UniProtKB/TrEMBL annotation:
<feature type="repeat" description="TPR">
    <location>
        <begin position="87"/>
        <end position="120"/>
    </location>
</feature>
<protein>
    <submittedName>
        <fullName>Tetratricopeptide repeat protein</fullName>
    </submittedName>
</protein>
<dbReference type="InterPro" id="IPR050498">
    <property type="entry name" value="Ycf3"/>
</dbReference>
<dbReference type="Pfam" id="PF14559">
    <property type="entry name" value="TPR_19"/>
</dbReference>
<keyword id="KW-0802">TPR repeat</keyword>
<dbReference type="Pfam" id="PF13174">
    <property type="entry name" value="TPR_6"/>
</dbReference>
<dbReference type="InterPro" id="IPR011990">
    <property type="entry name" value="TPR-like_helical_dom_sf"/>
</dbReference>
<keyword id="KW-0677">Repeat</keyword>
<feature type="repeat" description="TPR">
    <location>
        <begin position="258"/>
        <end position="291"/>
    </location>
</feature>
<dbReference type="Pfam" id="PF13181">
    <property type="entry name" value="TPR_8"/>
</dbReference>
<dbReference type="InterPro" id="IPR019734">
    <property type="entry name" value="TPR_rpt"/>
</dbReference>
Length: 337
């Protein structure tokens, strides 16, 4: 089952005015080298002259957040100490603690942020997120009940409840809450939540899985992953023509994505259509030139088409990329006779 990651989406967008990506890239560089890197140096120099300027600590925290959330946390906390009434400072400190994996500290900081802005749904949501990470499910669920059930952010309450249900291994409740989240999110659902819901329904062979895969694809038609899984589901449901169409959409969306080429090759191989199988396995090899399986399948297609010399070359390549590839080694022996 896909890991439900909906609770860490939108990091600090609402509270920090700074879009970010998951930041788990803790570099080995020393603190000084980071603080005096090209992008941060100017703010660090300014802080040497104006150490009481909370806005400078906040600005440097934003610059550090993506790559060094632990260092950003210190700057956000310092900014908050200098200006304890500023909600953004406490909120960003909580976000940095959450990303750095310090969930207890995150809960404390989001609580402080809520003291400056009571009943702010975004902060309630983030505090509940930290509580879920600490497995304080009752408190998190109570906070989820405080979130609005309509309008902007209404889906967050259901995402929280879905995450709690996941942790309790309650698939029925997870699906129910994710469906509710999709309903209130309207045209702006979370990608990971859509994919999680589609995956859960797919395992149950429920036909609604397809609509959620398609909806996830429509969020970004250059992302081929949803249509690939749609094709997998359609194959599972014995809808081969529909699966082929989905895989072909993948190829158009992202020509560099190997998986649909392999899937199409497998369909044609299973149908003994070796010419078309070769075409797609060949594309897979070009897309992923170190994939042993792609070379093996292309070799198998070439062998069936009577191109044994070319097949042998590919079997050898497959074996070179996977040293323990028993089937490839057996094929090499067979064609070397």
């Amino acid at each position: 089952m896909r890991k439900l990651t909906i609770l860490v989406l939108g990091l600090a967008v609402g509270a920090c005015n700074h879009s970010s990506q998951p930041a788990n890239q803790h570099q080995a560089a020393s603190a000084d080298s980071v603080l005096y890197s090209d992008i941060v140096r100017a703010v660090t120099d300014s802080l040497q002259q104006f150490p009481q300027q909370h806005a400078l600590f906040y600005r440097r925290g934003l610059l550090l957040f993506n790559t060094h959330p632990d260092m950003a946390l210190k700057d956000f906390e310092q900014a908050a100490k200098l200006d304890s009434s500023n909600t953004d400072y406490w909120a960003c400190a909580g976000e940095a603690a959450l990303v750095a994996g310090n969930h207890a500290t995150a809960a404390q900081l989001f609580t402080r942020a809520l003291q400056t802005s009571p009943n702010y749904p975004f902060l309630q949501y983030k505090l509940a997120t930290a509580m879920v990470e600490m497995k304080q499910y009752a408190s998190a669920d109570s906070l989820a009940d405080l979130l609005p059930k309509s309008g902007e952010g209404a889906d967050q309450a259901f995402y929280l409840k879905a995450r709690i249900a996941v942790d309790h291994k309650d698939t029925v409740a997870t699906i129910r809450y994710l469906r509710q989240a999709m309903t209130v999110a309207g045209d702006h659902p979370e990608y990971d939540a859509l994919m999680e819901l589609a995956d859960l329904l797919s395992t149950q062979r429920h036909p609604d899985a397809l609509q959620y895969y398609v909806q996830a694809w429509k969020l970004d038609s250059t992302n081929a992953e949803p249509m690939y899984y749609a094709g997998r589901f359609q194959e599972q449901m014995q809808q081969q023509d529909a699966a082929i169409a989905s895989y072909r959409k993948c190829v158009v969306s992202d020509p560099g994505y190997e998986a649909p080429y392999m899937a199409l090759g497998d369909i044609y191989r299973n149908n003994k259509n070796w010419k078309d199988a070769y075409t797609f396995y060949n594309m897979a090899v070009k897309t992923a030139p170190t994939d042993a399986l792609a070379y093996y399948q292309r070799a198998l297609s070439q062998e069936q088409l009577g191109k044994k010399d070319m097949a042998l070359e590919d079997y050898i390549k497959a074996s070179s990329f996977r040293k323990d590839y028993k089937e490839a080694k057996e094929a090499i022996k067979r064609l070397s006779k």
